[in-house]
Every structure is written in C-alpha cells, then in structure tokens.
Amino acid sequence: MNTLELHALNKTYGTHRALDNVSLSVPSGSRTVIVGPSGSGKTTLLRMIAGFEFPDTGRLSLNGQTLVDSTHEVPAHQRLIGYVPQDGALFPHMTVAANIGFGLATKGNEKQQRVAELMDSVALDSNMAERWPHELSGGQQQRVALARALAQQPRLMLLDEPFSALDTGLRAAMRKMVAKLLADAGVTTILVTHDQSEALSFADQLAVMRQGRLVQSGHPLDLYRYPEDEQTALFLGDAVVMPARIEAGWAHCDLGRIPVNNHRNNSTAQIMLRPEQLQLVSLLPSDAEMSGCRAVVTERDFSGNTCTLTVELQPLVNGDQRGRSLLVRSSGMYAPPAGSAVHVSTIGHAHVLSEP
Ligand SMILES: Nc1ncnc2c1ncn2[C@@H]1O[C@H](COP(=O)(O)OP(=O)(O)OP(=O)(O)O)[C@@H](O)[C@H]1O
Ligand SMILES: [Mg+2]
C-alpha cells in the first residue's frame, strides 16, 4: 500500500509562501497529476516529496512510514522515490548508458542488458548509449532521465514536466508508454504538467495549485465538469461563464432556462457550461418565428475534427439578452459558416461557480 499522505505542508522562502497548507492523499498505484500556473509551487512540492526540500511545518508519509514531520527527516537517498526533475539534470560527464546505469547494483553484461532494456522502454535507440548528454536533444535528455529514474525501481515516481520537450505525436505516444510501464510495475506516480489534455488524460486524480495552495483535487472529469471557481474552470479548458438567477434547480440566464447540478436557491451566481454543451442549428429565413435563443456566428476556427465558433446572442424583443458572445465547440465538418443565423440550445446541466 504505497499511499502517500501530505498533511498541512507549509514552505516559505524569505517572505514568499511557496506552499500554503497543502494536504493531499495519493492512493497506491494511482496516477496523480498536478497542474497550476507558473510559480504556484508544483516543483517545490515534488522536491519536498523527493527529499530535496524540507517543509517549515507539516507531515509527509509514504506507505505508513513518516518521511518528514517535526522530529523526523528521512534523507532523499533512503526514500526509494524516483524523481525526474524539470530540466532532466543528467550527469554531464557521463554517457547515456552510464547515466542510466548509475544506480544499478549489477555489473558487466547483466548491467549492459538492463540498460539496453531501459533504453528500449523509453524508445531510445541503442546507438545512443555512448553519446554524451550535450549531444542529445531536449526530448532525448528527458527520456534518459526517465530511464535513469526507472532503473531504481522506485515505489513512487515523481515526474516534473517530463514530456515538455517532445513534439505532439511523440509526446502522446511517450505518455501512453510511460503510463503503461508504471502501471505494469505498480508504481504510484505524480506528474506535473502544463498541458491540459495531458493532465486530463493521464490522471486518475487531478490536483490544481494556485499561489502555493491546493485549490481543488479529484477525478479529472469531476474537476472539468464541476470546477470550484472560474479560474479553475478556465485552467482546465474553455468555458462559457455568465451570470444567472438560480431558482428551484434552474438557472435563468441569457440562454434561457438551464438545469443546474448544485442548487443554491433564490440567488444570483455565475454559472459555467463547457463549449461542447452548446448546440447550434442553422436557421432558415422560414424559421423567423422559431422560439428560443437565436445567435449569429461571428467567428469560425476550424481545427480538423472540431471547430470552435464564436456566436453572438441576438437580443430578444423584450431586451433580456444583451448580445453576449459565446464559445461553441462543434463538429469540424458540419459547423455553420461565419455570418449564419443559428438557434442555440444546451445539453446537460450548468454548474454554479463559487464566488471568487
Ligand atoms: N530555492 C528557492 N528560493 C527562493 N524562492 C524559491 C525557491 N524555489 C522556488 N521558489 C519560489 O517559489 C515559488 C514556487 O516555485 P516552483 O518552482 O515550485 O513553481 P512551479 O509551480 O513549479 O512553476 P513552473 O510551472 O514555472 O515550473 C516561485 O515563486 C519561486 O520563485
Ligand atoms: Mg516547476
């Protein structure tokens, strides 16, 4: 049971609070992804788990063993935690093979064989074994760092933006491969990334950090659908946010009446819908009398299988609507062209956001 428990961790550098009361539970064998703006404390948190930073206050335990509290400090090399830092940090005076084999207890042929297997597992060609780190691309260096961390057979793996230097295709392939590799070995993993889709697809548990605080954690789908506030909503994808009056499970807003999942009666609040929850139907001149929400497509951004449209709601006769612009995600091939009149409807529930 490799459950990592972070309890009320705090870390201050001078007057800057890098970690502010961070608590999180990472279940055994799971994949937790940490996202957050630059400077929000992600690397500080990973370095603390690895044992390269120490909290001012708080407790950290792995598998029931206390790693850090006010009286204990288990040193990094005794934690059996693999850490791939943000910059890879290879030993510059060692070849690829020597970097990967650095911590292996085996020698001779057996060691060579193991290094070859590890190189293969991260899709590094065997002819790179004798190269020096400065002769590798950024993405290749990241893969050597990953192989070096895997060689230690860690009980917990910490990956700080390990795929950031890879191109989109290789990045997706590496992500799948690493996820499988770690799952097969039963290694609990914490990954930091700036890539939204990587975070949502890799994680069993997603944690969002902001200004040293962990603002929300949970299943990625839940965070995507039910973000705590507007900032978190926008951090995980595009969002349509608008004011509404909430009454008896319904939001009354510029789009009409939409059911809400989290009730807060008789109040005004900001609600959120994801752009793919809006549906457009092209209007013909003969539909002039069609009731409901009408809009005009003002922009169409085609990106292959999807198309992101900007539509402007048309004011109703009673003046309830104020020409609000909305983002809509539509099928790339069948999206209505710019300038066309459309009818807007919604799918599913709107989510009521917390006050900032
Ligand atoms: N050793 C240090 N001394 C002083 N300040 C530090 C130190 N390490 C980190 N910080 C500060 O703490 C904050 C959090 O840094 P951290 O590296 O954890 O951010 P991050 O979320 O990983 O950002 P990025 O996405 O840019 O990698 C930043 O404001 C940073 O400047
Ligand atoms: Mg960082």
TrEMBL record:
Residue ranges annotated for the ABC transporter domain, each copy included: 4-236
Keyword Transmembrane belongs to the record: no
Entry's Gene Ontology molecular function annotations: ATP binding
Cell membrane listed as a keyword: yes
Keywords for this protein: ATP-binding, Cell membrane, Ion transport, Iron, Iron transport, Membrane, Nucleotide-binding, Transport
Any Pfam family hit: ABC_tran
PANTHER family (UniProt xref): SPERMIDINE/PUTRESCINE IMPORT ATP-BINDING PROTEIN POTA (PTHR42781), SPERMIDINE_PUTRESCINE IMPORT ATP-BINDING PROTEIN POTA (PTHR42781:SF4)
Protein name per its UniProtKB record: ABC transporter ATP-binding protein
Source organism of the structure: Pseudomonas azerbaijanoccidentalis
UniProt lineage: Bacteria, Pseudomonadati, Pseudomonadota, Gammaproteobacteria, Pseudomonadales
